[in-house]
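Re-running the complex after MR caught last week's input typo. The corrected sequence lines follow. Everything else is unchanged.
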Amino acid sequence: MQHAIPVDELGVQGRFMAEAVDACVHCGFCLATCPTYKVLGEEMDSPRGRIILMKEALEGSIDLAGALPYVDRCLGCMACVTACPSGVAYSHLLTPFRTLAELQRRRAPMNQVARTLVKETLPYPERFRAAVQAGRLGQLTRRLLPAELQGMLRMLPATLPPAAPLPEVYPAQGPQRARVALLAGCVQQVLAPEINWATLRVLARNGVETVIPRGQGCCGSLSLHIGEAEQAQMLARRNLAAFPTDVDAIVTNAAGCGSGMHEYPLLFAGEADLPQAQAFSHLVRDITVFLAELGLAPPDGLPEPITVAYHDACHLAHAQGVTAPPRQLLSAIPNLRLVEIPEGELCCGSAGTYNLEQPELAAQIGERKARNILSTGAQAIATGNIGCMTQIRTHLAALGRPLPVWHTIELLDAAYN
Amino acid sequence: MPNSALIDALATFLPVHRLLRQAAELAPYESDALTAFRSRPGAVVLAETQEEVVRVVELCHRHSVPFVARGSGTSLSGGSLPVAGGVVIALNRLNRIVHLDPQRRIAVVEPGVINLDVTKAAAPHGLYYAPDPSSQLICTIGGNVAFNSGGAHCLKYGMTANHVLGIKAVLPDGAVVQLGGDSLESVGPDLAGFFVGSEGLFGIALEITVRLLPRPELYRTVLAAYHSLAAAGDAVAQVVASGLLPGAMEIMDNLAIQAAEAAVHAGYPRDAAALLIVELEGERVQVEAEFAHLLQVVEASGPYEVRVAKDDADRARIWKGRKSAFSAVGRLSPDYIVQDGVVPRSRLGEALAAIQRLSAQHGLRVANVFHAGDGNLHPLILYSGRTPGELERAETLAGEILNLCIELGGSITGEHGVGVEKRAYMPAMFNPVDLAVMNELRLAIDPKELANRGKMLPDGDAPSLTHPGIHPLEQQGVISRA
Amino acid sequence: MFTALAGTPLAEVQAALAEHGQYLPFDPPLAAAGATLGGAVATGLSGSGRRRYGGVRDFIIGMRYVDGQGRLVRSGGKVVKNAAGFDQHKLLVGSLGSLGVIVEVSFKVFPQPLAFATLQISGLSLASAIDTIGRLSTSHFDLEALDLLPAEGAYTLLLRIGGPAAVLPARLEHLRRWQGRGEAVADDAAIWQRTATFSWLPRGAKLAKAPLTLAALPALDAMLASCNAARRYIDGSNLAWIAWPGAWDELDAQLLALGLSGVALLGPPTEQPLLGLHNGANLAARIKQTLDPENKFPPLNGGKQ
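Corrected-run output:
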């Protein structure tokens, strides 16, 4: 599509943004997989519409303030990228645009408070743990709080599992086949520490030694995706320094983190850290991709037959193009029958902090996902992202059908015992 | 220049979030899949009921404001290009499947229902909706009706018009009529058939009765790779002469193959100069017998490689590649013009050779991906709007291809419609009397020329032009820019 | 495809096509009686073979006609696919001469099936016949024709298939097993000839056609039975051929009461050939006024609204 984006005025990211607009032929194929378009049925809330809005805002022909509500409603699920025949790198437009917009916009005071809370707590496990505990006290006085903060409190779990610090090295069982470094993550480490432990056990059982580098922290993708590029760079630099590169892979069990770490080269485009960022992101693997590439040691199986629906986390399926490996691993488990979810390409509505920023839409999209899951008759759900797990649990429960939701790696772990 | 009296009237029954007026709300509606033209409407109405559509049309008529119905905006001929300052009636939320009767093999749907969703709803009953435009995963039935959309599988079962039995429509003055019914047969003039393909000039379909077909017991799909486009064209003639009736017969040239492979990894032979896809469908024993015959015919046509789809997944990949090809060409070139001319099947080879010659002559790449069995060409003319003069050259080349189709006894459009894009070429295809009669019919139905003004017929208001090149209408002296 | 002048006899067209292994898939009736191509279009008549691919409206691709102002007008084209302009050639299908004089028509045609075979299922009640048609409609069997005929207090279904001769016995057997009953018809051509020539019409009976659906069949059949009207239903009961013993206006009233439409085909001329219910009068009137402002041609329906 033709445009008049002032590329040179927009810094390094300008070229990426312009290339994404260039590649769009306006065919509309992306509309079919866009969750907000499915729910709202209006062009502004479609990927194609948002590309036009961002293009026009960058060109200066429409106000940023007018365009932002629609750009804000984008989940960043990247289903459109999977659907796009023309190869539009939508994230290359969206992410820098959000960063630019953040610099220019004025947020309402309470919204700013909520946002600051998100950005200053979620990426830091200790702060998040403390915040959850404080938040439980806050539940008592919830009705006195502004809407923005109420929404945040609603998302907090009633109880937290005890903290379970990870070792520095987890040895392989039997002959060593590989050595990897694990990203411990931030939110997930607090909400579901057992996922990391399951990961360590499954890796060990597959002959993999895992190091958990000290000094690592949040991958920064949460900050990056809400337009806080500076904080994202700070967090990413910490990981670039902390992780060894003499490993076979840098493994993550959170789809969002994997996607974010693959974006490090974009984050550091034109900066001195670029070569290091490229080397790092080259090593990054989702746990399921790593195991599928390695060749999974045959699992013993589950005690009872069970039907499991696999939910594609957007940051795995769309942002990283990973759909086959998790299915391949799950299908290798004796006694497990895998089923597909109708409209499987649609996001569950969790999408990082979307739940907090667009609660109404997130709820509509979440309910649609829960109904689609229930239509399969599955007894449990497997997925590869903590955000999806929380969102799907919430919406299944709201429909009165609280089926268990597991991380793929937890099912594998169970199948080895 | 939106009409404030009309806006006030609309605002009495439409909430602000369904009567879009802000720049950021209107900009995404400025064009469809033909981005060379853009035009900002005065308002966009997100209709949710048929009654609302009728009311909006009535009011537009009363205030003499042009309106354009819009589905998913996938027209390749600019069919849903808004009229500047006019009203866009977006029908996406009018997406109910009102009724589906498997025994009678019909479905009654609203215009905003997505083409593929009809098939999804019919599938549990062993039925499907046959017309399959490449955009079927998002294009709407309302748009299909307006433009008589085709698709790869229209060779055997025909276009949209052959699958529409009845239409409830609002005419441009607000009158609601029922055309046709729910039987495959009808008596009296075929009004439903006449309405289909009228490009929105006769009003807006509110409810459409479509026929469904039983899903074939077996599909057999073969890919054949050739060293030349002409050889693939000849193979088509041989398949036709063999007495077989394939469900689809498609050709892609090397540029199209490269683009589709990059987009969806369909598994096409990347080095082929041309790829022929032929599909048979029907009862198992018959398809198997016919497929053996087809393979003989194809093998005898001189391909250097023949591949048969292994299973349903393989077949789906083959078709996904084919159906993504237009958009995928966006990977090869920042801009392109899609043409849709038709030539008699017997003159396919001649037409392809002429297109290659014209392409070389104008120094512009042309990708070909087309419905070979129907003689329906889709040359995609690749250019860059940033290179001065290239758009003009591309448009000249496009015009020469259209004239070529007419000279060979064909048509300027097989399935994309005339829209805003090809209306300058209508006089080359129809004589002044033919066009006068069309215009009179249009005026009898829409005296104020409000419904999708500026489409199909070669006079009337020109679209507002925001693209840099010379519009074909300008070249012909029909319109000029201030 | 082919183009022919409107007065060309159907039999001549069929013979010319047969030389090239092609046929008219909409299977127009009365070819043997001398019916012309233009007549088939103007009356909008298709035969039992429409089951497979569709009727006359589905195969016409272009036309030249003379309108009420004496203008020679072209619509459509001579290629199998064409989306340019308003499809007036479809408008003239079934128009009964009210809009213009058809001069020349172009049709899309298909390869003719190499052989045919028919399965006959007799002794059905109407309810079980309807059930069978419904089940066949959602099955994967490709039928060339699916006719239902009342016969001696019961009903008979005729299921015709077409294709290479070598596979027809197997296909017929699949069909018979799926249905659980029925026998192959010995002389396939003869049985279908009988339908196409209307040789089953009682002497002196008028002929009308009425579009319908499976849902409307029981009421229509009951009415026709009570009036002693011979009848056949073709294309899975989408069309009734009615041998009407009474006056046209009686049939008109009966169809109207049932919410059905029809057209008078053979019998005493009538000013109002369209029977029963009519749709789209508003649009049709505007079109008539445009193409024939001085009413040179017969009115659309005797002026009846």
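None of the earlier attempt is carried over here. The two ends of chain C are 37 Å apart (CA to CA). The first strand of chain C starts at residue 2 and ends at 5.
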